[in-house]
Amino acid sequence: MSLEVLRELVFREKFSRVFVVFSNTAATAPVFTVSTLATLGGRMDVVARSLINALWDLESQRFNTLLVALLNGPPNPPLGLYAWRVPAGGKRSEGFFGGLILEALSGKKVDGLLVEKGARLVDVVSLLKGAGYPVYLLDENGLSYANVNLEEPVAFVLGDHIGIPADLLRQVTRLVDGVISIGRTPYLTSHCIAFVHELLDRSSRLRRHA
């Protein structure tokens, strides 16, 4: 395991919240356009929407969150995409974030976005745990979130619309601190991120007013 880019980022920025999204099909090269995120991009639209919900609340940018998107589509998997800041003038739109992803994959310097070759899910989870993060897997069959006391800093692992492959899922399940469910109904990855943010925001507000 190397992940020097991710390691330096995590220890430098000390994020309160980390979301790790495993994408089975998202392209690992700039072989798509902003208008073909879902097709030629290998459902890069899922990644773009995850970025939006990770880095924005309803009105403004979040500054305490890292999104780690693990891209496993052709032609050069695996690839890690790390996003933690929205460039000046950023818009809360799929097209805007899709454009940022495209620039990063093209080798251009993008403020708040980095890429790293060879980023594998098991290694990312191990790195986060080594950095002091409790790591939870989000899965419909896990323990209800209502029965888990979530405290920051904290990290979460999510699959895409396909899900994490069975063999890899077994490995990750052995590594994480727990498997949490936000409901028995499968939700969009981006919606799961928004829901978890709301849970943590609510908990933070309660602590401030206690």
Provide the fold topology.
Elements: H1 4-13, E1 17-23, H2 44-55, E2 65-71, E3 79-83, H3 94-105, E4 113-117, H4 121-130, E5 135-144, E6 154-159, H5 166-175, E7 178-181, H6 189-208
Helix pairs in contact: 2-3, 2-6, 4-5
Characterization of this structure:
This protein is α/β, with parallel strands linked by helices. Helices cover 35% and strands 21% of the residues. It contains 6 helices and 7 strands. The protein has a 7-stranded mixed β-sheet with strand order 4-3-2-1-6-5-7, with helices on both faces. α2 runs parallel beside α6. The relative contact order is 0.19.
Keywords:
210 residues; alpha/beta; globular
Summarize the structure in short.
It comes from Thermofilum pendens (strain DSM 2475 / Hrk 5). The protein has 210 residues and is of the alpha/beta class.
DSSP, total strands: 7
SSE topology string: HEHEEHEHEEHEH
Q: C-alpha Rg, in Å?
A: 16 Å
What structural category arises from helix and sheet content? alpha/beta
Q: Any idea of the CATH class?
A: Alpha Beta
Q: Major sheet, described briefly?
A: 7 strands, mixed
Q: How many discrete structural domains? A: 1
- In spatial order, strands of the major sheet run 4-3-2-1-6-5-7
CATH architecture: 3-Layer(aba) Sandwich
Query: What is the molecular shape?
Result: globular
End-to-end Cα distance, whole Å, is: 42 Å
Q: Tell me the strand percentage band.
A: 15-25%
CATH topology: the name is Alpha/beta knot
Q: What is the number of helices?
A: 6
Q: Could you tell me the mean pLDDT?
A: 94
Low-confidence segments: none
How much helix is in the residues? Answer: 25-40%
